Amino acid sequence: MTVQSDALLTLDHLLDTVQEPNGREVIDPATGATVGRTRVGTPQDINAAVAAAKQAQPNWAARSHAERSDLLNQAADAVEASAEALAELLSREQGKPLNGPNARFEVGACAAWLRANAGFELEPEVVVDDESGRAELHYKPVGVVGAVGPWNWPMMISIWQLAPALRMGNTVVLKPSEYTPLSVQALVHVLNQVLPADVLHVVPGDGEVGAALISHAQVDKIMFTGSTKTGQAIMRTAADTLARLTLELGGNDAGIVLDDADPQAIAEELFWGAFINTGQTCAAMKRLYVPEGLYDQVCEALVEVAENAPMGVGLDEKNVLGPLQNKQQYDIVARLVQAAKDGGARILTGGDPDESQAGYFYPTTLVADIDNDNPLVAEEQFGPALPIIKYTELDQAIEWANALDVGLGSSVWGNDVDLCRKVAARLEAGTTWINKHGAVDPRIPFGGVKNSGFGLEFGLEGLKHVSVPHVISW
Ligand code: NDP
Prior knowledge:
Mean pLDDT: 96
Family: Belongs to the aldehyde dehydrogenase family.
Protein name: Acyl-CoA reductase-like NAD-dependent aldehyde dehydrogenase
Bound molecules: NADPH dihydro-nicotinamide-adenine-dinucleotide phosphate
Number of helices: 16
Strand order of the largest sheet: 12-13-14-11-10-16-17
CATH architecture of the largest domain: 3-Layer(aba) Sandwich
Distance between the termini: 36 Å
CATH superfamily of the largest domain: Aldehyde Dehydrogenase, Chain A, domain 1
GO molecular function: oxidoreductase activity, acting on the aldehyde or oxo group of donors, NAD or NADP as acceptor
Pfam family, one: Aldedh
CATH class of the largest domain: Alpha Beta
Domain Aldehyde dehydrogenase: 24-467
Low-confidence stretches: 1-5
Helix content: 40-55%
């Protein structure tokens, strides 16, 4: 079957489609203006969505892999056809600028992840084949996937959850964050132009609606991205239904610069490793360890990049950094930078928000001469403030990097890649990048260790995590 998507959708059309006139007001975090009004779902809506997804799942699973891949490619086409309208809505609702590694980049990633998942082939694995017999490991769909998402990359993370799930023959019910419900509903509207009925649902609502989804007896797999605290609550609830879990819970990623690094050469990558999406990224660099001998040079090079990265309203084409998405997150960043100041740290740039400004803008902030146990280092800031910690012994830096109870990403920066790899091997994290940070790729497995969660996303490993194994042996 071939289903053609509508022609290009405009922002007004998208908003008209997903808005509910008497719904809850959604605010642009850059201006305080109303973006639109969202439907607010209820636990009953979850029940209806899960029932419909449950009913649709066997037929979806019965289609061939080629057919599902074809539909995912068509879904990517539909996203690309409406990319500008989606990016504009995302920019207004989430706050992120159109340009830089932000709204247009996020919509582009949605299409890329759909296409990558369409292209994967998860063949049965032959685990034994000898005179004693043969055993094959097959992967089958789990059933209904319940996906709960955050507000920082609302479209892209929804795609991370739904693309592999659909590819494997599962049906999906999404619950977006109450901060970014319109973006995810608009994305689902676009995808549902080409997907068969009831394969993909979205129910906007608060934590209670999320709780109804993850506790539903007919949800077989839960994919969650958000805070550790909510992840723990979800895990407790899942004990009752034995739903399978993938938990992506953020972290406090360390970057370690080695003695032989070239500060000028790495400054731009270092900056965006920390400030991508204005720091509101699970696998952004959140603390940077720099050897004494390079400390001043790295600080100076970072200040130069920071002061040339315009921050402001997302729809203004010149901006590459935006506001914090919500007041709660703004307050966290403000509190942690204040803690750094109180601890005697030196503010290299930023650190002094203009309270009279509309929107949750916190200036790009670099903090030097900060103790490793300061709250800005020890707690996840999830915003545009990077502490730069001086070290004298590499072993000490590695010990500091590993000392926290989270482990999502990490990075090592230097000219000698062999040395970087040796240091990388000693870091406790789901991913360690060399001379880059946070560079996710749909082909490369991604997930956390320690309190950053468990379960892998992306690539063939990602497909396995939305499947159940079935061994056939003779
Ligand atoms: P939460 O973990 O509270 O929210 C994430 C999602 O879970 C939202 O959709 C939320 O709904 C939903 N939710 C809340 N309670 C429940 C529940 N009991 N059962 C099921 N779903 C539930 O994160 P916050 O948005 O409050 O952000 C807090 C912190 O989390 C940030 O400061 C940051 O450190 C971290 N974070 C990490 C992210 C990551 O990428 N790993 C992304 C975002 C935040 P709703 O919001 O609608 O109430």
